[in-house]
């Protein structure tokens, strides 16, 4: 922490901590980040960035060029909140019922703005930096990163590499972690509707019990990973939603299930799909029920480029010290739509600690730690100065 860049970062961090708390109080859901995007655009213009708005609806890109270089780099933050009722009671807790910044995207936005400020005020680099503020990371499908790419993100704002940062509960504040290669999992979503025949609870022989079929499907799904996937590979099948029936004395004719499926390998991902489809169909058929299955392929595996990851680790060590940066962290079973940007350009997503005792991401008592703003901003500045060395 003896780095002079850290001193400068602390000086402007308080300003951006206030901005972060304001964003926290006014969370906006996917593709509705109008207020957030306006604040981002206004702040970037005030810093001297050339600003484009309305990319993928509410996306914003700020560009800053310095003479002497032809290379370019993109830094990405996400802006959206979640449909969660906040349980914190701080003064800046969410003012919007049922909406909350429970994944720290308020902090990601503030860290990148603070980094943009450091770059504009003191950055020593030659070339072009694009700061990309993305909507709708949390959607799981048809997300903000996909739409920005479809709308020509890297054609309109050419970048040789792209980088992102996500906060990480369970890692001390001021620490970083990442790994080269696959770092975060692919995430697919499955919706299942079982159609049986309703009737009186006392006359089950005249019914097809959709609740029983759903229960059998849940149990048999437990064999998909345990008896099909190589134990040396990673895979998860979780039933996150199961709904059937309305009252104790009526056998339900309909049941609904929603599954989350995670994997790190394309072959494993394909095998999981095949086995889930076959298992669900066979279980329903064995009870005489009809079934409809909708398999939504979500975000792909997030793959960090080895060379760019080495650069990110160097930048993190410059600002946090060598001991505070894990360069070979274990893969994470969460997913990120930044994976799409990494399919388009080489780069790296790094995780910054949100504290050992932080509630988990997506928890109603989660909160981004503002101490990260100075560290995160210093990381962004140092990364650009290393990539676009003058
Ligand atoms: Zn999230
Ligand atoms: Zn997130």
Layout of helices and strands:
Layout: H1 4-25, H2 34-46, E1 50-55, E2 59-66, E3 72-78, H3 105-122, E4 127-134, H4 144-150, H5 153-156, E5 161-168, E6 176-177, E7 181-184, E8 186-195, E9 199-200, H6 210-226, E10 235-244, E11 250-251, E12 254-263, H7 266-286, E13 290-296, E14 302-304, H8 306-320, E15 325-326, H9 338-344, E16 347-353, H10 372-387
Parallel strand pairs: 3-4, 3-5, 5-16, 6-15
Antiparallel strand pairs: 1-2, 2-4, 6-16, 7-14, 8-12, 8-13, 9-11, 10-12
Helix pairs in contact: 1-3, 1-10, 3-10, 6-7, 8-10
Bound molecules: zinc ion (2 copies).
Residues 103, 105, 137, 166 line the site of one zinc ion (ZN).
What structural class do you assign from the helix and strand content? Answer: alpha/beta
Strand residue percentage: 15-25%
What is the CA-CA span between the terminal residues? Answer: 24 Å
- The number of domains is 2
CATH architecture of the largest domain: 3-Layer(aba) Sandwich
Largest sheet: 8 strands, mixed
What is the subunit organization of this protein?
Answer: single chain
- Please, how many helices? 10
Q: Kindly state the percentage of residues in helix.
A: 25-40%
- Quick one: overall form? elongated
Low-confidence stretches: none
Could you spell the SSE succession in H and E letters?
HHEEEHEHHEEEEEHEEEHEEHEHEH
Small molecules bound in the structure, each named once = zinc ion
- Please identify the top-level CATH class of the largest domain: Alpha Beta
Write structural notes for this entry.
With about 400 residues, this protein is α/β, with parallel strands linked by helices. The protein has two domains: about 5-185 and about 300-385, Zn peptidases (Aminopeptidase, 3-Layer(aba) Sandwich), CATH 3.40.630.10; about 185-295, Alpha-Beta Plaits (2-Layer Sandwich). It is about 35% helix and about 25% strand. The strands form four sheets. The chain has an eight-stranded mixed sheet, sandwiched between helices. A four-stranded antiparallel sheet has the order 10-12-8-13, covered by helices on one side. A hairpin with a 3-residue loop joins β1 (about 50-55) and β2. The chain is elongated, with a radius of gyration of 23 Å. The structure holds zinc ion (2 copies). One zinc ion (ZN) binds near residues 103, 138, 361 and 362.
